[in-house]
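User: Structure please.
Assistant: Input sequence and predicted structure:
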Amino acid sequence: MGKRFIGGVGLWLAAGMVFAQNSLTLQDYLNEVQGRSADYQSCQAAAEGYEKQSHQQDLVYSPFLTASYSHLDDQSQQSTVLATDQTLADSAGVSIVDKLPFGPTLAVGYAFNDINLKYSPQLLSYFGGNSSAFLSSYYQISPVVSLSVPLFKDFEGAQTGAGVKSVQYGFESLQKLSVFQREGVLFGAKTAYWGLALARQEVDIRKDTLDRSQRIWEWTKRRVARNLADPPDALQAEAAVKQAELDLQMASDRERSARLNFNSFRNAAAGDVPEQLETLEDSLTRVKADIPAEPPVRMDLQATESQTRQKKAAYDQTYQNIYPDITAFASWRGNGLDPRLPSANSTAFSTDHPTWILGAQFNLPLDVFTAARTAEGYKKEYESSVLSLKDKRLSVDQDWRDIRDRLADVDKRLAMATEIEALQRQNADEEKRQLDLGRTTQFQLLSFENQYSLARLGRLSLIAEKLGLLAKAQWWLAAR
């Protein structure tokens, strides 16, 4: 007796361990979806990529460095005796150019030349062979500072800034839309999880109904064989069995489809789901969502807002092409020339031999009409986007109010369904007592129990509906 009891306890514990190992909670399933779903990972990668790409136009205002070096060996024939036979020059330069956000472009540079000259004998003989009259080796240094300012087109950086914003808002819109779609994958996974849980519970209920229908049929056939019941009673019981079989087959088909949908979210091609899922009742106690009165600014709405800003920036950028381009520029260049590098460098940065340039450049597009027509097209696109944004805001507001209303409605219907289920259960229990007293038949009991099963299915369907609404609210609240 003791050994049997211990063995039974051991089997019970082992079964419990297997059950625990094969159970799959909703959160565990969502973790699998995040780690395996190609759709989820695609949206995640796209969101991260678009966020990083949105900063690429910042490079427009980032300074860039230019450096160069060249070596010259010129031994070409010259047409005058004053020319050199050979010129050797090592030239290097470095400059930094920066486009400022308010319009001007600033450049700072430094040029270095190391020049060595070899004079022709004819030139030296003309000066009595005295080569010291000429500089044969010297350094030439030139620091440069320049500034250009647009005075009409792109004044205060209007066109450049609009171009930067156009690209940034475009990527920002795509990034927000990807985040919304990523959270939508999790919403779909939740509904797939609860859909399979509901389908499995329905299959269990249908199996129980079929089993009871078959027992009633066998009982009725025996009564007909003993002339205790009429043949139509057996036909009616058989019809109930066939209906139960059909209901079970349909429930099994739905359960198979639910398994395929369930596995698709975790990137599994197989149709088997060996894990035990949470019941709908357990999920309902865990899933919470605070429903604010005002609709959330969902990511898809934010994406539409960014898209509208992008259209406005594109219009502003294109409209600038109508204006003439007037640019004022100024530059200062120092000049230092000396056989000694320190002296050449010192002279270049002094005020002794500067070179100043002041000027302006005027460019006028001759096909102004095409530029204006193009800008008008961008304006119409922007106006269309404004109207789409207005419609999107209204749609989001209506969707949110619909969720709130449906949640309140489903709670009322769920309370009613729970009450109906309790009543149907009481009816079935009472019918069992009547059967024990011989005051009813098993077929009548089956009818009451079937009504109880339908009431259970109705309540479970409402729980699944409420879970779906809560999941949708979570989706919209998370993606904001």
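The chain has a mean pLDDT of 87.
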